[in-house]
Amino acid sequence: MATLILFNKPCGVICQFSPSGDKPTLRQFIDQPSVYPAGRLDTDSEGLVLLTDDGALQHQIANPRHKMAKTYWAQVDGAATDEALAPLRAGIDLGDFRALPAEVRIAEAPEWLWPRQPPIRVRQHIPTSWLVLTLREGKNRQVRRMTAAVGLPTLHLIRYSVGPWSIDGLPPGNHKSLIINDNFFSRARRRDS
Questions:
Q1: Which of 80, 116, 181, 189 has the highest local Cβ count within 10 Å?
Q2: What is the DSSP string of 165-189?
Q3: With contact defined as beta carbons under 8 Å apart, do 137 and 100 qualify?
């Protein structure tokens, strides 16, 4: 059995427990010994961070080889079109690597959206759009780099889900703990076959 913590990380929180200047860290929100993040989320991004006390589970979640789906909601600067998003769906060259094809769609702002702190910059004559992107890899600042590469810089980024887990019903700054059976991933792999 492994403990898995689902944490809805607020903007500005660093994905580590050790102090880092004046920035808040996971320690201010999670007081449980021996858990570690299974993957990271940029300081200026928010949403789901998974933490576990089990190294094998951490590896299954974080290792890109397992291609666990990660879904993000991104508010971007500009009016998104299907034509502009086509390179993301095909896989886009980001210079140091080629991103795998992403599932991406234009959406309305989510109903569950909370006020962002600090608020994003708003430009009176420039529209914004919301995108829902699902990736099966997780390189550093990948969503931001992908949207910028197609001329739609990300203003607000929320990781909504990783694999079967999401922030649904989990307010920012809150977390919940689950107990995961040792054979969770072997059962999931058999279902996918």
A1: 80
A2: EE-TT--TT-EEEEEE-TTHHHHHH
A3: yes
Lookup result for tokens 């996971």: 26
Give how far Cα 172 sits from Cα of 11, 120, 184, 193, Å: 9, 16, 27, 35
Interval 4-37: pLDDT, tens: 999 999 999 999 999 888 899 999 999 988 999 9
Question: From the candidates 22, 31, 42, 44, which is the catalytic residue?
Answer: 42
Listed residue (35, 36, 33, 30) closest to 8, CA to CA: 30
pLDDT in tens, 94-121: 999 999 999 999 999 999 999 888 888 8
Longest Cα pair distance anywhere in the chain, in angstroms?
53
Q: Tokens 């993040």 belong to which residue?
A: 37
User: Which residues have CB under 8 Å from 44's CB, separation 6+?
Assistant: 11, 12, 157
Which residue ranges form the domains of the chain, and what is each CATH number? 1-66+164-193 (3.30.70.580), 69-162 (3.30.70.1560)
Task: Indicate whether this model's pTM tops 0.85.
Answer: yes
Angle between helices 184-192 and 55-62 (to 10 degrees): 30
The pLDDT-based confidence of 190 (bands split at 50, 70, 90) is very low
